[in-house]
């Protein structure tokens, strides 16, 4: 849903591009310059990591997430929304991996169960559109290509690939029979592809991971969501145990992550949609508890700190996630 409002897109796009380049440069510099005096812990919560074993590879994972969108932004700046729109998304993600080649290759299936709703209108006459069900199935793989292990430290590099299949409903109707907005559908209706690289360096209780992953979104019925670049970096610290006196031992890890997405504009019949795409950066503190060698519980709260949205779009509110990983293979 879009509004007819003046555009100041060129300056906003220039700022977004500049910040994206800066973020990528910082990510590369931190990974290259990470000191050798720094130790290992559980995998990051929102950022990929380059390990392909144990809780980083062969563990079934599920997590619940919730986020909202409310308040209108025009080219990244807050303005009044005459429709008072609010979007609410609740989801349960299911990830089933399998270590196909020991310490080398993990393949996985990912499917979400989603509950989406859009509210709009004045307080005394609110209207709601909603849908729920399973979303699109994704098949992914992570391939370790570099590993350097030394006492109390390791450096890993992995390649990541994903194929998303259109298994979710993409033509759910509203109460009057009209199709729901594309962003409210459970699936995209398109076959989409992702590829990227992941780096992890850990020394003692400290670990640093980063990823760059690009999504290629294809066309369905003349519409295509814009391609997306994910750029993430995660700093983790194991606060307990300070020193392993026996293994396995109960473990508590703290994480601070920066998670970014830069999206191109969506297109309809080959024409770019002005009110779509942009750059969103979230700061994501989190905590993990590993009570058993084969079980991990985690929680994170993602706060948007930069929203360079194109045109007129609802801004993103904070995201809450809680989940677990269970080593079953």
Give the SSE layout.
Layout: H1 9-33, E1 59-74, E2 77-79, E3 86-101, E4 105-120, E5 127-134, E6 137-150, E7 153-165, E8 192-203, E9 206-216, E10 223-224, E11 228-240, E12 251-263, E13 267-268, E14 271-272, E15 278-292, E16 295-309, E17 312-316, E18 319-327
Antiparallel strand pairs: 1-2, 1-3, 1-17, 1-18, 3-4, 4-5, 4-6, 6-7, 7-8, 8-9, 9-11, 10-13, 11-12, 12-15, 13-14, 15-16, 16-18
Brief overview:
The chain is mainly beta and 329 residues long.
What does this structure look like?
There is one protein chain. This protein is mainly beta and 329 residues long. The chain has a single domain (9-327), classed as monomeric porin ompg (Porin). 8% of the residues lie in helices and 56% in strands. It contains one helix and 18 strands. The chain has one helix at 9-33; strands at residues 59-74, 77-79, 86-101, 105-120, 127-134, 137-150, 153-165, 192-203, 206-216, 223-224, 228-240, 251-263, 267-268, 271-272, 278-292, 295-309, 312-316, 319-327. The protein is globular and about 65 Å long.
């Amino acid at each position: 849903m879009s509004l007819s409002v003046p555009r100041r897109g060129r300056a906003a796009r220039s700022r977004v591009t500049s910040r994206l380049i800066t973020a990528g440069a910082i990510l590369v510099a931190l990974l290259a310059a990470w000191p050798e005096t720094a130790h290992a812990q559980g995998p990051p919560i929102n950022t990929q990591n380059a390990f392909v074993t144990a809780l980083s590879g062969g563990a079934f994972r599920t997590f619940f997430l919730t986020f909202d969108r409310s308040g209108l932004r025009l080219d990244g700046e807050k303005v009044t929304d005459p429709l008072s729109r609010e979007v609410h998304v609740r989801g349960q993600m299911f990830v089933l991996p399998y270590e196909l080649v020991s310490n080398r290759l993990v393949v996985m299936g990912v499917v979400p169960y989603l509950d989406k709703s859009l509210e709009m209108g004045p307080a005394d006459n609110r209207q709601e559109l909603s849908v729920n069900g399973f979303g699109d199935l994704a098949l992914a793989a992570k391939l370790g290509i570099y590993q350097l292990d030394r006492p109390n430290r390791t450096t890993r590099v992995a390649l990541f690939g994903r194929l998303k299949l259109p298994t979710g409903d993409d033509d759910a109707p509203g109460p009057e029979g009209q199709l729901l907005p594309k962003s409210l559908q459970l699936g995209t209706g398109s076959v989409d592809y992702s590829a990227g690289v992941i780096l992890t360096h850990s020394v003692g209780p400290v670990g640093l991971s980063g990823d760059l992953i690009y999504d290629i979104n294809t066309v369905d019925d003349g519409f295509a969501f814009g391609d997306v670049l994910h750029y993430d970096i995660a700093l983790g610290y194991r606060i307990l145990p300070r020193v392993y006196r026996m293994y396995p031992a109960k473990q508590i890890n703290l994480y601070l992550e920066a998670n970014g997405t830069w999206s191109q504009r969506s297109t309809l019949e080959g024409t770019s949609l002005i009110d779509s795409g942009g750059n969103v950066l979230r700061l994501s503190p989190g905590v993990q508890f590993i009570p058993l060698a084969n079980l991990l519980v985690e929680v994170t709260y993602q706060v948007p700190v930069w929203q360079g949205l194109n045109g007129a779009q609802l801004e993103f509110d904070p995201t809450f996630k809680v989940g677990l990983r269970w080593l079953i293979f």
